[in-house]
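Propose amino acids for all 155 sites.
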């Protein structure tokens, strides 16, 4: 197998803590792999907070490129300090290397399992600071093991 080691990316740990994380946009790739086959951007953020145990870890988000979903793109561009007035042509290179706060919260996935994902209002500018948690940052309750006690029976 012939390969170029310069094209091989090092895998980083994924952020596992809800709340706000100071990040840099690491890579942005335009794909067409949304569930409906729509164009989207896959954005990888890198946590840039030396005081955090999550420093150097990654966060991934996907922004679908439809008119109905442009509010999230506008929110991200605003948080990154890019003008969002008037007409514009957007390109993934616009945002690479820029910094913002990214907010994570637990949300149910398609199967109802709680997953850590970027919050609906999950982008803030560096000057805004982290602010309050996007939503209550409670982790899902772990499943109990062992027999059910009489106190746990709902009737």
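Proposal:
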């Amino acid at each position: 197998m012939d390969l170029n080691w310069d094209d091989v990316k090092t895998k980083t740990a994924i952020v596992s803590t809800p709340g706000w994380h100071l990040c840099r946009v690491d890579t942005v790739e335009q794909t067409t792999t949304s569930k409906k086959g729509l164009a989207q951007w896959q954005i990888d953020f890198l946590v840039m907070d030396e005081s955090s145990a999550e420093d150097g870890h990654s966060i991934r988000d996907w922004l679908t490129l439809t008119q109905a979903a442009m509010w999230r793109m506008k929110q991200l561009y605003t948080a990154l300090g890019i003008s969002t007035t008037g007409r514009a042509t957007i390109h993934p290179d616009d945002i690479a290397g820029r910094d913002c706060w990214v907010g994570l919260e637990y949300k149910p996935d398609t199967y109802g399992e709680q997953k850590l994902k970027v919050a609906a209002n999950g982008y803030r500018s560096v000057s805004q600071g982290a602010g309050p948690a996007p939503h209550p940052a409670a982790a899902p309750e772990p499943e109990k093991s062992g027999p059910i006690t009489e106190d746990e029976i709902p009737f």
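The first strand starts at residue 19 and ends at 31. Residues 17-128 form a domain with the OB fold (Dihydrolipoamide Acetyltransferase, E2P) fold (CATH 2.40.50).
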